Amino acid sequence: MADNFLERHRQDYEERKAAWLRKKKHLPKLNKGIQKPEDESL
Q: ∠12-23-29 over CA atoms, to 5°?
């Protein structure tokens, strides 16, 4: 039953994780700050 089951699943996980990290690095950063208007009376 063992036949490298855990090793294969670990390897698949590491490949998916690496692909996710590569994709994440290319995403634009979101500006989470509040945009204030120039005129404070608004």
A: 145
